[in-house]
Recover the amino acids of this structure.
DNA sequence: TTAGAGTTTCCTGCTT
DNA sequence: CAAGCAGGAAACTCTA
């Protein structure tokens, strides 16, 4: 998983926006706990409301942005939701993730603080919009489709802020850090953003191959869409190719995505050695040497 | 403003 | 025959 919108960004409008809106509840106006198959993207939601999957997405993001070895963060120690995560102390982070615990803790505090000036539980439930999690991608709907969400607490629809603007604001604040964080890692990142994010380019969120990988790595959220054929070799097979394509389309806000188009993008990965061909087998692919994070004992 | 990355879309031909 | 594969070409979106 790669940072969406890396490095220094054009923050003028988003910074302005955030400075105008110091309360986290205002900075997460579109919080949609389970907007999609995986519960939406972690940076679209306040940490308090992350699902387990979003916690993992956040961990993966930190691995990427801090150039950490995958072994630095034992994911099994973070089989928890956002609420649990937010309740963890620095000591608990350190115990769970060792040296990386400090980074995790600082980043989480940063994210919480980023929008959260108040811990008022009323405020948090007032503005955060919750949707019931839907396991079946065929029936799921996203906020983009309807352009509004239903606020269960108040029985009303809420107009949405532009998600891209919101994400940019979130990520830029995370990566450039205008907040008083003492973490040396974050300071370093502020001083050398380009060095911290070498050749990261992920304009529209997670890459396709990472999206596929994450489905494979999260069987609880993978209702028979893709399965491992040979886990150790990184060989996998699409079981519901069109459903996966639809899911990818949802993620990219592209309702016309098909497996034919998705597979074309997959084939481009051959040249980059992110995927390898598996001859003679339909719907079967294999992770290549440039694909990271799919092995059970990565690195 | 521009170049490049990473798709997305469309296409033709081939294979299963 | 349908579905999937292969890969060229152009268009598109977004970031540095």
């Amino acid at each position: 998983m790669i940072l969406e919108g890396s490095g220094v960004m054009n923050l003028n409008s988003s910074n302005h926006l955030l400075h105008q809106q110091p309360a986290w509840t205002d900075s997460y106006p579109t919080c949609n706990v389970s907007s999609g198959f995986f519960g939406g993207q972690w940076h679209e939601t306040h940490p308090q409301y992350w699902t387990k999957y979003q916690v993992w997405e956040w961990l993966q993001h930190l691995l990427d942005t801090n150039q950490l070895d995958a072994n630095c963060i034992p994911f099994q120690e973070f089989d928890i939701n956002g609420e649990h995560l937010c309740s963890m102390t620095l000591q608990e982070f350190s115990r769970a993730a060792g040296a990386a615990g400090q980074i995790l803790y600082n980043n989480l505090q940063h994210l919480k603080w980023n929008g959260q000036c108040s811990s008022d539980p009323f405020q948090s439930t007032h503005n955060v919009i919750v949707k019931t999690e839907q396991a079946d991608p065929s029936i799921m709907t996203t906020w983009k489709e309807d352009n509004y969400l239903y606020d269960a607490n108040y029985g009303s629809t809420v107009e949405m802020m532009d998600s891209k603007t919101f994400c940019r604001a979130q990520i830029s604040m995370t990566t450039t850090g205008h907040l008083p964080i003492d973490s040396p890692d974050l300071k370093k990142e502020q001083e050398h953003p380009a060095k911290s994010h070498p050749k990261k380019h992920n304009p529209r969120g997670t890459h396709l191959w990472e999206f596929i990988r994450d489905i494979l790595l999260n069987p609880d959220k993978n209702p028979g869409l893709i399965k491992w054929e040979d886990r150790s070799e990184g060989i996998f097979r699409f079981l519901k190719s069109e459903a996966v394509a639809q899911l990818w389309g949802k993620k990219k806000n592209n309702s016309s995505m098909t497996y034919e188009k998705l597979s074309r993008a997959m084939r481009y990965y051959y040249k980059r050695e992110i995927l390898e061909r598996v001859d003679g087998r339909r719907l079967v692919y294999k992770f290549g040497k440039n694909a990271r994070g799919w092995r059970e004992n990565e690195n």
Remarks:
- Residues 199, 201-204, 207-208, 252, 254, 256-257, 260-262, 264-265, 268, 280, 282 of chain A lie near DNA strand B (CB under 10 Å from a C1').
- The longest strand of chain A covers residues 226-230.
- Residues 42-114 of chain A form a domain with the DNA polymerase; domain 1 fold (CATH 1.10.150.50).
